[in-house]
Design goal:
single chain; 245 residues; mainly alpha; 9 helices; disordered C terminus
Length: 245
């Protein structure tokens, strides 16, 4: 059945994403390495490795750097016939709302929130910080694999070299702008998606370059980063005043 093939393909993508991030997660839990640096470095390895597989092992005969089309029974169904919009949108919305509910109403979600905001406090409260960090990184890798599976099964219907240019960094910016709120990330992600798609029309219909969208994103990152730094400095100064006698 078509639905079974699609679910099996998405499950494989989830497992692959979790397995790939398992190495940075292990080094984070075992040696306290910086997960930002290790995961960004592993991204380059993943991109080059998949490029090698696509070009030298699974390349479609006579085509570009892409694999042959997948079976039609593995397609992610489209929502509308006049658009490439597919059920990946529904999956993303369910994940965002589900994450918000988990963080707000479950003990595990509260522990994850405490580990992210105050790891020392969480450790004193009995939370296994290393195990929580390992599990969160595995889950993040699984979600990343799911996103790649949705893009492959629902949009391109094959694996293409470089099919996701900058999607991960766009997601990071959207999460920063949403201040870590899963529900707010829905709206910031739609905003950045509109910026990315609008940049193509901007270059076609006007004389402006689409790189101006990158400049806007950079300005947003700087603004959010400055806000975080000012807030932390204000909290630190308030704490010092509070403990002075």
């Amino acid at each position: 059945p078509a639905g079974i093939h699609t679910l099996a393909a998405l499950a494989l993508a989830i497992v692959a994403g979790a397995a790939w991030v398992a190495i940075p997660a292990y080094f984070r839990a075992r040696y306290n390495t910086n997960e930002v640096v290790s995961t960004i470095l592993s991204n380059y390895v993943a991109v080059l490795l998949t490029s090698y597989f696509t070009i030298f092992l699974f390349k479609r005969p006579g085509g570009w750097s892409e694999t042959p089309p997948i079976l039609a029974t593995s397609y992610l169904p489209e929502i509308f016939t006049f658009s490439r919009l597919n059920w990946g949108l529904v999956i993303g919305l369910v994940l965002a709302v589900g994450a918000a509910l988990v963080f707000r109403y479950t003990r595990w979600g509260y522990g994850v929130t405490m580990v992210g905001s105050a790891p020392k406090f969480a450790e004193y409260g009995g939370v296994n910080v290393k195990r929580q960090g390992f599990l969160v990184l595995l889950l993040s890798g699984a979600v990343g694999g799911l996103a790649g599976g949705v893009e492959t099964l629902g949009v391109h219907h094959r694996f293409m070299e470089g099919f996701a240019p900058g999607f991960g960094f766009d997601g990071l910016i959207a999460a920063l702008l949403a201040n870590g709120s899963p529900v707010a990330t829905i709206f910031t992600a739609l905003f950045f998606g509109a910026l990315r798609n609008g940049s193509l029309l901007l270059e076609v219909d006007t004389s402006a370059s689409r790189e101006i969208i990158t400049v806007i994103q950079a300005l947003i990152i700087l603004s959010v980063s400055a806000q975080v730094l000012v807030r932390k400095r204000g909290d630190s100064q308030a704490g010092e005043r509070r403990w002075k006698f």
